[in-house]
């Protein structure tokens, strides 16, 4: 071990033994390396390959408790030292950054130029790399798409320590395969994301949040449909509800000052007399619901009433459901500590959503629950995914066992 | 089994009508939109269903015969160039729109559905299919998926990749499976879209439909020079406006369009800019006034604003006919497709002008100015010895310029056979090797549209760094953990 540590120490200045509090879902890393350059990261990964180390990348730990524990974890690669803005081409609305930069910090840099990365991060402090690896997103994906849609170039360190890139730093580019999309949502199982280039958008001159409460999901759903099919081009249409209780619908309108006022008023009209227009988001906006278990539900927008009904009938009264009603992606926060209390409603959801198509993935849960249930449910094309994994990581050393299908 | 044997098997699956072996009829399929690459396909099949395609692919795999998918054959990089020793699988009979679902803003189509037909079907519901390549009257959605096609309006609305939610595919093993977004697993769909038919054949596509905008406003601005037009583009983008489209043409391409369709653009213009804004009326009106002001400030000597669809079509007519129109001023031409960061436009265009003068090869410039996607039309006389070669050289120099400026060798037409040799100028060996790991995962036998995109195939057996002995955990009997 000290031999491995010194081999790592030769290529990376910041290498040490793992600390007890650094466990990944309870699996203690023997070592931690924090490279400060891409070249250093590549060297670390090369040594890890030579020494057959299982590697788990770590950003700011906002989602390290997602998925399953790694089957092994010899080395944590901490990316937070890779935090440079490599290039912000403001005139081209493009930015290229290192993966350990936080999305919040990036937002500050861009805001100084009146620009933004139109990607909401539900968890403050998330790094760019972690956000990509977890394919995280928030309300504004209705208009701007999610992380994979804004990513225009990526650099990764492969399992064998070689540096590879795809895409570039121009918005329009179809040369070669789009590895960026493949890496987005791969949870550290295909390679270490070290750099990313994004397309940017101008910061809107004005924003308005239009919210209204509804007695039940039916009425809320009707309101969502009204706004979705309107001409007002909302940036987001969100819902927030406690299962069994009233439902709040929130709509974000962005644009020029003159336009936003008129559009927000028109949206308020669609939402009914109780609608409220504000400059600031409601406090639940874009945040994951609380609870010890987080379930991500994906289905076409029309599935909303059905999802709420299934949760109610599945014994989830009191759970919070929140998310993008215009896109068809929600999160449910369950308080349940016992496996059956999660497994029951989960099975119901998966059964009704499968044909739509849709699904429900458990992101995090207490250990007892996590060990008992299938976190992903059926994942189509899993055999192909395994073959991709085998190509990218033939030794199965990158975040082994963390992902769908035991990948 | 040879091709003849295969053709007989196909006839059993598909019937006589759907299997073409007659050389005269095969000739129809010998090239796509890139007509200077030609090859007679060994056999052409016209399946109706995914199951038939799966059966065809399985037969090809068993026989070790390469196969190529083809939609409408409008591709401009030779992606659908057939193999003389292989099978061409044409989707033109798979033209059903299976579902229009406005409540969920999506539609499900077969791969041969023509791009514009989907928009026509969605329009009565208030929707359309946003990717709008200029070829949209003839190109197929399967082809759009394979090429990740764009269009004049992709500056605001994105490319095909942004509008595809799921694809049913026949894998290169001949299995039918579905890949989609947000399924919890890898985003195989993201890798598949734009893979130019090398990762399988899509047989059913779920796309996002986009709400028709409340208002569309279009203007044409005439400038003395390309530089002045470029200044206007920068000013518009810099002001935080995201136009639906922003297109530029130079003097030579205006001359060609004038000769071909008499579009009546302002005489004497060194460049024209077409700017289109769409969206909520309250938003568009305000921004449109700003665009007009910025164009004037950049030196526009004439601005025309379309007041109705007829006038809008007139403005677009010149731009949309530009490619074909250069036929009026030159016996032959090459269409190039390169990308540069938008801010490099003035420098790169000036350099193209220099190169053109030095070599005596004329270049007409038409481009999607908003995203720096250049379509230089390199003109030559094919009856003149060596002219084609010189045009090719200049066209290649333009790609070099794109790479030097941090751009790309293709913005929308794809790599195909045409540009695979340029790939190593943009990507390292490791980059290309890594991309081909995806290819090896999907198509280890390398039979699915081989010879496209990558200059040299990767041998899928030779996985670098592959473990020679079983993993310790496998030995311990814990392999299923992985
Ligand atoms: C006049 C003209 C204007 C054009 N304008 C534009 C433009 O503005 N923007 C733009 O992006 N492109 C443009 N193109 C290029 C071309 O139209 C697009 O690439 C289009 O998407 C190709 O569609 P297709 O059906 O003709 O495909 P094909 O040419 O038949 O095939 C293209 C590629 O797709 C593969 N393929 C076809 N069907 C499938 C399938 N079902 N599954 C898997 N792979 C498949 C083929 O193997 C091939 O590699 C233009 C072409 C022309 C001739």
UniProtKB/TrEMBL annotation, chain A:
Keywords: FAD, Flavoprotein. It comes from the Bacteria. One of its GO terms (molecular function) is catalytic activity. The keyword Methyltransferase does not apply. Residues 25-203 form the FAD-binding PCMH-type domain. PROSITE patterns: FAD_PCMH. Signal peptide: none annotated. PANTHER family: D-LACTATE DEHYDROGENASE, GLYCOLATE OXIDASE SUBUNIT GLCE. This is Glycolate oxidase FAD binding subunit. The lineage of its organism: Bacteria, Bacillati, Actinomycetota, Actinomycetes, Streptosporangiales.
TrEMBL record, chain B:
The keyword Transmembrane helix does not apply. Its cofactor is FAD. Residues 37-212 form the FAD-binding PCMH-type domain. It holds the Pfam family FAD-oxidase_C. The lineage of its organism: Bacteria, Bacillati, Actinomycetota, Actinomycetes, Streptosporangiales. Keywords: FAD, Flavoprotein, Oxidoreductase. InterPro entries: FAD-bd_oxidored_4_C, FAD-bd_PCMH, FAD-bd_PCMH-like_sf, FAD-bd_PCMH_sub2, FAD-linked_Oxase-like_C, FAD-linked_OxidoTrans_Type4, Oxid_FAD_bind_N, Vanillyl_alc_oxidase_C-sub2. One of its GO terms (molecular function) is oxidoreductase activity. PANTHER family: GLYCOLATE OXIDASE SUBUNIT GLCD (PTHR42934:SF1). It comes from Thermomonospora echinospora. This is Glycolate oxidase.
